[in-house]
Amino acid sequence: MRMKLHHTEYISRRIARDLATCEVVEVRKTKEEIAVEIEKILDADIEKEHDLDEKVADILEEQEENIEFYNADYRQLFWLTKKRLANDYGVILNNEDRFSDMAHKILDYLWEEDYIHYTCSDNQVKNIIFTSIDQFLKGFEESDSAVLEKLKHYKRKLIPGTDEYDIVYHRLYEEELIKRGLM
Questions:
Q1: pLDDT at site 176
Q2: What gap in Å lies between CA 79 and CA 65, rounded to an integer?
Q3: pTM
C-alpha cells in the first residue's frame, strides 16, 4: 500500500513507540521529539513523490492531443512516465524497497542527532522501523474500512470533505488504530 501524507503522523508515533519499548535501543529524547523528526523525514519522501506526480501530469497535459488521438490509456502512460522519471526525482517506486530506504534514513538521522543509541547491529534497528511502517500500513486498510463503515451508519449524515466529517473521521480512525494496537 502507498503511504499518504495523512499517515505520517500516525506512523511516526508508532515508530517512536516501538523504538522506545525495544530492549536494544536507548532513547535519549522524548517519544514526541523523536516522532516529530520521523514525521519530517516521511513527509519529505512523500513530497518528492508528489513533485514527481506533478511533473508527470504536466508532461502528459502537454501531450493531451496525442493521447486523445491515439486513444491511449492515460493511467498506463502516467505510470510509464513516472517509472521513467523516478530515478531523476529520487523516488523509489517499489514499496518494500522504499520503506527500507525510509527506515535507513530515519535510523541514520536519529543516530547522528543523538536521539537514540543501540547495542545491536544497524539492521536490527532498521528492521524495527521497517516493521512498524509495514504493520501500520496493513492495519490502516482495515481501520479505514471500519471507520468508513461506521460513518455510513452515523446518526447524523456527514458530508465528506467538510470540517465536521474530517474531525469525526480522525477521531474514529484513532480509536480504530488504538483498538488494533497500531498506536
A1: 85
A2: 18
A3: 0.79
